[in-house]
Design brief:
With 730 residues, the chain is α+β, with helices and mostly antiparallel strands. The chain has 28 helices and nine strands. Strands 4, 5, 6, 7, 8 and 9 form a six-stranded mixed sheet that branches. A three-stranded antiparallel sheet has the order 1-3-2. The protein is globular and about 90 Å long.
Amino acid sequence: MTAVAPDAPARPAPAARDLLARGLLAVPDRAPVLLGCLGLAALLGVLLGAFRPVVVLPLAAALAVATWRWVPRAPRPTGAGLAAVAGVLVLGAGWLLVNLRYVAEYVVVNRDPGFLTLKGLWLAGHPSAPVPVGGAAAVDAAVAGASAGTEAWWLQDGHLYAQGNSMLPALLAVQGWLGGERAVLAGNLVIGLVALLAVFAVARAFAGPLWALVPTAALALSLPMLTFTRAAYTEPLTIALLCAGLVVAQGAWRRQGDAAGSRVGPHVLAGALVGAVGAARIDGAVAVVGLALGYLLVGASPLGRRDRRAAVRGALAAIGSGAAMVALGMVDVLRLSPEYVREHSSQLTSLLAATALLLVAAVVVLVLPGGWLGWLRRGLHRRRAVLGRCAAGAALLLGVVLASRPLWWEGRFTDPASGYGYAVQVLQAAAGEPLDAARSYDERTLAWVGWYLGVPAVVLGFAGLAVLARRAVAGRDPASALLVAVLGVAAVFPLVRISITPDQIWAVRRLLPATLPGLLLAGTVALAALAGRWGPGRWPGGWPRVERSARHAPASRAERSTRFHSGPWGVARRVAAGGLALAVVAFPLSTWRPGAAVVELSGRATQAHAVCDELDELAVDRVVWTHSSPFRYLATLRVLCDVEVVEFVTPPTTADLAAVRAAWGGGPVAALSFDPGSYAWTTPPAAPVGGTSSTTLGRTLTGVPRTVDATWSEVWVGLVQDDGTVAPAG
């Protein structure tokens, strides 16, 4: 008997090792759900005007505890499963550390990240979202041309209300409680990391742990994911919430029996997570339409009388919780971004009306007595093999139609008289294309996916959708039905009508929430099927059996499948699947130069703080800003410098500035601009503040951006005199 040294570390007991392994395996499933709980708690804190750690964090913890048992249990520990999770955690950690070097400095109002970042910075230090403007409201009312509001920040009742929903800024602000301004700027990378884990969790559920690394790595390396996680875009949060809902729904239907479907709680959580997309984005109700369609297919499917009752209960619970989250998102924008709602009232009304109509129709069909549609369900059940092939064919046909659209159709949904039409013409002139302000380029959307993910990923994606559609219908698999329905709506909808200025890389952000990860997930399913993962006994319910009546009767489908997945054919299929997987992961690397190394709006935070320091030295807390290229600056000064600000869009006269100073009570007022020609100076100004060369990825219509634009700017600061002239500061 060998003696054990007294200082030898004790090995973990088998139960402890198993618990540790299960905890590791549970991380991809639970992390996005915990993010959803924190996002809901943060949003409620903002709506209540009580956005403080003492309110938000305990509420998030309570939501996490309440939903803990509804999250799918971790799979049984296996070597492949543990290796895959370890791999995705290492990938995610490395991805996060590398991208921290390239965090954008969106502290100016320039597209969505500007106002979302500034709102997050404001919330990090304040309990409510509206930003008071103080005495600037009186100046706004007294002086023509002077405004206390600005682009994407509307003035109402003495407060500024930022554009858009509040969940993402609130989540960034929570991180700001811990790490200050830098944590707010980099906070979307943390959300992006959770989104990658969520993609892995969905792929693991449908294709297995090792194959799940393929879509996760491909998405992590894609230029859109890099670009839109380094700044405050809502798309990474949408990926996390949408995939979290799919994981929970899949877990709820892991077993096709009454025991699996009778638990309503997981369906409530799945619906709430998908519906939270509508609380994070004003157009997120589209995801709930897909959810309702998927649950309608499950609830109306021929699963047997007892199973159908359970399916209907789960469907109603999911649809109800999803609709409630969309309603919460609408309360958010109606209260905290009312002008944004008014500007988009027609599109928003159409979307919400269509969503409500579809949800009501789904509920009506679900609650109809079983006998009303029993004949239809029985007929579908008898023909499920044929219908499964038809569903697969429809998915492939959809891909062909979308890919061929540039040959026979042009999207023309842009208003030529709008600023969008002008922007389109500028892009067309730069690309050498005919000028046509009405072009919206919707026909190119699938080509855009190919630009960033590669043609193999697109082809595999639609092949995977075909496999999933057949699995949902012929295999009577509720989880696959939900996946196809949600992806079919959320991913295909923007492919059909993109509704965004068509410049790259900006335009592809519409495809990041569902289309890019959806095609990668479906493509992984196709790879797993090609490699033989779905052989006999692995398809839910098994392959349909064909009885043999004699010794020399034809082989059953299961036997034919076994032969197909073994021997030389099986080896060739696995090699082909591995080669295609490497191509899918590697292709995004070809799009990196130069975009992957660009810090968007570099130096803008440093410049803004230099301006704030100058105002502190001058002991001035009232500022006139005159708009000049490249950005509006009112919101930046109000949030970062904590000063009262009014803005002129065109250079003010000396009479205008004198009136502003008088309306503010005659005290010291600073005048700032990027352009020294905006003011009448008492003496020529000599020393600007915060000079910086700021970079941004170039814009193009015809492919992945391959240029980097650099803009030099500096801020000129002076003090307004009684007669409206401006004396240089210092």
